[in-house]
Specification:
By secondary structure, the chain is α+β, with helices and mostly antiparallel strands. It has helices at 2-66, 72-80, 176-181, 199-207, 268-280; strands spanning 134-138, 144-149, 154-156, 160-162, 165-173, 187-193, 215-216, 220-223, 227-235, 243-251, 258-265, 282-283. The N and C termini lie far apart (180 Å).
Length: 284
């Protein structure tokens, strides 16, 4: 009995094993068919998708046919266009200013030469020590201004009448009465008036009062930065070494008053005073 049961169990086990193998084979065969079916379904789906894509492509081709193709340049620009970086700002080199060459300025017009009487009036007597101080005086009308030696303290600025007109006048000396009466003291008289006379006429009119007492010298031209005219010089007046100078002048343009300057000279220092007077007088 024991042997028979063992044999039966062995057969049963082999049968079960065979069934399991058969079941596995059946399962394997059924999965392959399913895979093939799935594959077929996938192929069908892919085919349909391909057909749809083909239809879309045809539609796309139709649309492309209606739209103009982009030019080669545009395509190239689209393809080649890339973002470019802005170039870094570079600092320009500083420019050094250079002076433009300029034409040299025209030289100023030369001033009119001043007549110097120290070389015009022959004087041998020194007449005393040189004047060291000068003062400015003005006539009573305010028209004439002139510098005189401070020692000439006797001053009169009253105007005078001449041919129905008033003439501005200023005169100064160490003694005006002695100056008017003789040849012993130095002095000056400056007049300015709007008279209808020429420089030469004025000098000619004064000559009659001096030719009998003095030695006339040749008439000379006069000039300074403001005025131009002529002057007469008389020497050895009254039998002395006294000289007398009369200057008549007008402004360079011929306008303004006629001016007359008379100076009595006793020595070299008075000639220096004459130059100072003629360099400073102004008549408006």
């Amino acid at each position: 009995m024991t042997i028979r049961h063992d044999a039966l169990r062995g057969r049963t086990a082999r049968l079960v094993l065979l069934l399991v193998v058969l079941a596995l084979l059946a399962t394997a065969c059924g999965g392959g068919d399913g895979g093939e079916d799935a594959g077929d379904e996938g192929d069908d789906t892919a085919q349909e998708g391909s057909d749809d894509e083909g239809s879309d492509d045809e539609g796309s081709d139709d649309e492309s046919a209606d739209d103009p193709e982009p030019s080669q340049d545009e395509a190239t620009e689209d393809d080649d266009e890339e973002p470019t970086e802005e170039p870094a700002a570079t600092e320009e080199p500083a420019v050094t200013a250079t002076a433009e060459p300029t034409q040299p300025a025209a030289p100023p017009a030369p001033a009119q030469d001043q007549t110097i009487f120290s070389s015009e009036v022959p004087m041998t007597a020194p007449g005393g020590a040189p004047y060291t101080e000068y003062t400015t005086v003005t006539d009573d009308t305010g028209r004439i201004t002139v510098e005189i030696p401070a020692e000439w303290t006797d001053v009169d600025g009253a105007p005078i009448d001449f041919e129905d007109t008033t003439i501005s006048d200023i005169r100064a000396s160490t003694d005006l009465a002695a100056f008017a009466a003789g040849w012993d003291v130095p002095g000056v008289a400056v007049t300015a008036g709007d008279v209808d006379r020429s420089v030469e006429e004025v000098l000619d009119g004064e000559a009659g009062g001096f030719t009998s007492s003095c030695t006339p010298l040749p008439r000379q031209p006069y000039a300074d930065p403001l005025y131009t005219g002529s002057f007469d010089t008389y020497s050895n007046c009254g039998g002395t070494e006294t000289a007398y100078v009369i200057v008549a002048a007008r402004a360079h343009d011929g306008t303004g008053p006629l001016i007359e300057v008379q100076v009595q000279l006793l020595g070299e220092r008075d000639v220096e005073a004459l130059d100072r007077i003629l360099q400073s007088f102004v008549a408006a």
